[in-house]
Amino acid sequence: MLETLPIASWTGPYAPEVKARAVEALENGGVLFFPNLPFQLSEKEKSFLDAGVSDGKAKNISRDPDGTLQSTSLTGKRAQALGAMMGRFADSTSSLIGDLLPYREIERARTSYRPVQVKGRSQSKISDDRLLHIDAFPSRPMRGRRILRFFANVAPSSPRHWHVGQPFEDFAKSFLPRIGPDLPGKSWLYEKLGVTRGRRSRYDELMLSLHDTAKLDDNFQKNSPHQKVDFPPGCCWLVFTDMVLHAALGGEFALEQTFHLDIDQMAEPARAPIKVLERLSGKALA
Ligand SMILES: [Fe+2]
After folding, report:
1. Which of 45, 61, 168, 239 could pair with 41 as two cysteines, CB 3.0-4.6 Å apart?
2. Cα(77) to centroid of ligand 1, in Å?
3. Strand partners, 34
4. Cα 129 to ligand 1 centre (Å)
5. How far apart (Å, rounded) are the C-alpha atoms in residues 51 and 44?
């Protein structure tokens, strides 16, 4: 499940054997683990290791690709410096992915900084990422495109605790029969009302239902097979979060970069969640 890669540089070239292992593990629902790849903060940037840089409302500080920063309490030069750190992370992860993986067309989406301790946060079950889930976002229809996320633990001393669950296909097989049909006209209405950016496909509705049903199922949360993983300070990991069941149970100070890609970029598109769900349901979903 954890594929450890000995990479110690944010830029390639990387050995062909390492590249082959990376894409195979990633598309197969593994987590690429980079134990020797710290994302270094400058002395100045270390002052951002403080939960107070968050505005206290959102879980994460986010930076759009155009540089717009949201949900930070910082202003002026300090906000600019935080944005620059996040931008550097975005550049570093883009360069690594470009050199490591065969995805020629990949969209760089948001960067997030997670400065608040995960443990002890109170929130609704649906938005509680301490529960096992696959990523699916209500306002961002993917219509089958993939969500690839690069994480770095930049905490000085605390590991980031994750649980990683069963394979996607096993999960989908047990949950699909519990999901009802879509309400006719719902995705059209949501688009018109501006609830979603673009129209949700049947795939998006299914993924959201899988996300919610799994989080609300106490028995599944307690008893479904999962592995505990501790990501130590100074490491990184990369994972298709739309396919790998994951939960973040503890830790503070993580950076995350999201990428989106069409399934025709994959070495094996048949492994994409949309293809798995279409096969299991016998329906076209996008
Ligand atoms: Fe997630």
Report:
1. 45
2. 31
3. 236
4. 6
5. 16
Instruction: Say yes or no to pLDDT of 183 above 70.
Output: no
Element containing residue 219 per DSSP (H, E): helix 218-223
Domain ranges of the chain: 2-281
Is residue 147 within 8 Å of 83, Cβ to Cβ? no
245 SS3 class:
coil
Please tell me the CATH code under which domain 2-281 is placed.
2.60.120
Using the mean position of ligand 1's atoms as its centre, give its distance from the Cα of residue 183 in Å: 26
Please report the pLDDT score of residue 57 as a whole number.
87
Q: What is the Å distance from ligand 1's center to 132 Cα?
A: 8
Residues of the chain with pLDDT > 90, as a percent, come to 86
| Other Cβ atoms closer than 10 A to 53 | 19
Convert the pLDDT of each residue in 196-224 to its tens digit.
778 889 999 999 999 999 999 999 999 99
Separation CA 60–CA 227 (nearest Å) = 25
**Quick check: 196 and 280 in contact, CB under 8 A?**
no
Query: Could you tell me the two tokens for 32?
Result: 């690429």
Output the pLDDT for position 187: 74
pTM higher than 0.90? yes
Residue 208 sits at the vertex; the CA angle it makes with 202 and 213, to the nearest 5 degrees, is 120
Three-state DSSP class for residue 157: coil
